[in-house]
Write a structure and sequence with these properties.
The protein has 211 residues and is of the alpha/beta class. It has a single domain, classed as 3-Layer(aba) Sandwich (Rossmann fold), CATH 3.40.50.300. The protein has six helices and seven strands, in the order H-E-H-E-H-H-E-E-E-E-H-H-E. The strands form two sheets. Strands 2-5-1-6-7 form a five-stranded parallel sheet, sandwiched between helices. A hairpin with a 4-residue loop joins strand 3 and strand 4. Helix 5 packs across helix 6. The longest helix has 20 residues. The termini are close together. The model has no long low-confidence stretch (mean pLDDT 93).
Amino acid sequence: MPSMDAQQLAALAARARRLAVPGERRVLGLAGAPGAGKSTLAARLVESLGGAAVLVPMDGFHLAGAELRRLGRAGRKGAPDTFDAAGYAALLARLRAAEPDVTVYAPAFDRSLEEPVAGSIPVAPEVPLVVTEGNYLLHDTGPWAPVRALLDEVWYLDLDDHRRLGRLVERHVRFGKDRADAERWVAESDEANARLVAAGRHRADLVVPVG
């Protein structure tokens, strides 16, 4: 994860803890460009809250590889139209409802397979806070438009582009791309998506600088 000192992390954890009100259900979103450190910060926040929070990533709503190939979008995986955005919004609405005695199951994303995996994350009705993270939480067009209103707070992670791009390349290499392909994918795909993400920055409740 990009560097964040203990004091900054503690302040963010305290802010998240204030959202975790027993007997209620709130949803905290972490947005930011690819490689900004969203998933790692989300995991740390959930860990700091113990059993009061659960992580439900937006990436569980990636369309499956076979469907992306059928649609001719496999080369743009990660773009807004390569997700089931309406399904994500519907899950957020269901999570906010927190029906008594009903555990809601959310999908996860397996990076080793590069595929979503349904029914992977149980969200028990008594858990007061859901933390969700992803690129397009602040995107305001098409089927993404309803998402912002379903989130009690959204924090935007702001990382220097040079460091972020280096992290992205290393991540793609770690999960199987050779370096040339990773660099090309980052330049042609990830950065096009990053520009869309940055356009929603002003809609965040908090901008979190990360080093």
